[in-house]
Amino acid sequence: MHPRTWSLVAPPPATVEAFLARQQGAALNYPHRGASNGGAPPGGFNLDHNRVRVGTGEAAFAAGCAALRAWRMFPAPWTRIFPADAPIREGQTVAMLAHAFGWWLSACRIVYVVDETAPVRRFGFAYGTLPTHVEEGEERFSVEQLADGSVWYDLRAFSRPRRPLVRLAKPLARRLQRRFVRESQAAMCAATAVGVGGKETAS
Description:
alpha+beta; nine-stranded antiparallel sheet
């Protein structure tokens, strides 16, 4: 495995910074930019769409938006975003460090930002994978407030394994994706100070 993307121990900040600097000019490793924003997924990709209610009213919506801006939907300690204070803006490149049978270092880029008031109030963004990522695809994170005042965290992604080892271990990779969804939902519920109730999941 490429030493810059996998290691037995967590890479130090200087290594992550150097890795991220090399990704700034890289192109997305899939041709379906923006396809996570509704509609059918591209052929050959897995679609995952999960929602959880995180509260009701303006305070819950504001807290959810603040959590997205702070990348708090990434469950600690086994996932981390670098830089931790990366702004939510189109074109922003980030590194994602995940601990699963070693430490995996991947790069993603924000491909669009959502900030809508109608027909549903919604804030969020999607990022797409860059060539160093073990998978290819796109993931959208958003917070929505419906007409009844309820506030939901919505996670939508299409993806498929890119590297041979990940393709061979697809069941394990899918299990890790489901773990990420569960713990990301719990992190967002904690960020809005409510329990994990009113859950709706589709995949």
